[in-house]
Amino acid sequence: MAEVSSSAADTEAAVAAVLGGDVEPKCQVAAGGPLEPLCPAAKAGPGCNLSSAAAGRPVRVLKRNMKRNASRSCLGKKSHLGLREREWLKADARRGCVYIHGKEMVLSNASSTSSTGTLLLSTSSSFGPDLQLVLCSTETTTAELCTQDSDDLYLQLHGDFIRRLNPDERPLQILYDYLSGLGFQDPLRIQEESAIADLSCMIRFFHGKPSSIEQLDQILLSGVFSVRKGKTQLHKWSERQVILCGTCLIVSSVKDCQMGKMHVLPLTGGKVEEVKRRQYCLMFSSAGQQGQTYYVTFDSYPECLRWHRQASKVVSQRIGTVDLSCYSLEELPEYLYFSQDITHLNLRHNFMHADTGLCHLNRFTQLKSLNLSNNKLTTFPTSLCEIGTLTEVNLSCNKIHNIPKEIGNLQNLQTFILDGNCLQTLPAELGNVQELMHLGLSFNDFKVIPEVCTILIAMEKLSMAGNLLETLTLETLGQMTHIKHLDLRLNLIESLVIDSLEAINHVTFLDLRDNLLTELDLSSFASIEHLHCERNNLLTLTISGFSLRTLYVGSNQLTTLSVYPLP
């Protein structure tokens, strides 16, 4: 591990590269060689019947059972791979192993090369039917590893964040880039480290979306019982693993209970009833027209009674706050719409689309707080403009370019966060939101302070860090009579334009860090309490000291500092 860099910056770079979803090709070659793209036809090792893709001749896929006493790496002599597979891997550092968890992988063509001329090898795992080892190259795409439309490949980082891979993304290249970001430099060493199965605790691939196990600590009751699905007699009674977890009833086969093959029945708003025609039997039903029903028969009356009491509490409880952040959701679960008491909904870090997954947001009639930051919106979800009860909306980091005029319908909105988008203007209709107190516009493309801010009479905090402002006009600030907190750091401000001598008595906090100011006269800011102006090119600074409490002017070239009166 001598060549591994342990710096935090390297680790963050590796995480960012994987989570970003846009993986640039950095194909590795033999040690000491330059970085080059993979050639169309990779060399095959001895014993591999590999023909070029152009010729269209099939390739025999080699399969080997993994030995239980195998080493952690598939490249060692005691590995679960045969000699031909190991030689095929060692022939090119751009080839490697990808461990895929979930149901058994099906290759695109069992006996052919990929479109890149890459040999695809599949082996079965003795560690369990939910683990598959695939030998491929850095040019092998997700589409080449999956055949059916439902067979999507998912990536999980550090046991937390999960995202679906695009068809043109390359799993092995993602793995190699991750190791490169951690500090590994030698291509052969990267190939060796990527072949270690233990690496899955840091970065893991799933064939099919893995079921969340984050609620296991909320398990209320569990056991193996006789279960029948549906109200008709067509379904047979079968032995199933039944778990009452959080607000859901989870039913799975006893054999595959840990493999994600489970049915989740949301109980909130549903019902649980005792079945009189069958001994020790309960009926669990979810809410809504598409609700499902499960019958569960217990072994004794006390056990049936215990489940009945606990499930009745779940059915009758009211949920005010729902946190579905980092769940890799592409659309809202249908059962959420049947809970009329949701007031706070957190959907941060998912993969929502404004035109598909969020088109029915207006069904949440009691919603007060909505967090949709870090999704894939690109457009503003206009359906939320019909939720008049909203007081807080967070749409940061969504690449939104425009705000619709319907935003004026949110008369009760108090906090509106739009940081990290691509906005240049705001609609005049935003001025109708007279309750707005905090507006976040940081890291957008504004060149001036939006004019609508001058008529938002309740606004106390305006954040515009990381925009394209070049001048700061005191007349504009004077018109925003309720602004107390103003954040303008990381802009391109070179000068302060003084149009009048009127005092600005409402601003108490001003942040001008990391701009291009050479001189700054804030003597008209009579109520300023906290000023940040570090990392400019300041030579002179004049400031009122009537209310001044803290002053930060580091990393400048000050020759003159005037504070009157002295605080």
Report on the architecture of this protein.
With 567 residues, the protein is an alpha/beta fold. The protein is built from seven helices and 29 strands. It has helices at residues 8-20, 83-90, 142-145, 171-181, 187-194, 301-316, 474-479; strands at 95-102, 121-124, 131-137, 153-157, 161-164, 203-207, 219-229, 238-245, 248-253, 262-266, 271-275, 281-285, 293-297, 321-323, 344-346, 369-371, 392-394, 415-417, 438-440, 461-463, 471-473, 485-487, 495-497, 509-511, 519-522, 530-532, 540-544, 550-552, 560-564. The strands form five sheets. An eleven-stranded parallel sheet has the order 14-15-16-17-18-19-20-22-24-26-28, with no helix packed on it. A seven-stranded antiparallel sheet has the order 10-9-8-7-13-12-11, covered by helices on one side. Strands 2-3-1-6-4-5 form a six-stranded mixed sheet, sandwiched between helices. Strand 7 and strand 8 form a beta hairpin. Helix 1 (8-20) packs antiparallel against helix 4. It is flat, with a radius of gyration of 30 Å.
Strand content: 15-25%
The whole-angstrom Rg is 30 Å
C-alpha geometry: flat
Major sheet strand order: 14-15-16-17-18-19-20-22-24-26-28
- Main β-sheet description: 11 strands, parallel
Helix content: 10-25%
Mean pLDDT comes to 78
Can you count the beta strands? 29
State the end-to-end CA separation: 56 Å
**SS field, number of helical segments:** 7
Structural class: alpha/beta
Low-pLDDT windows of residues: 1-71, 103-129, 212-217
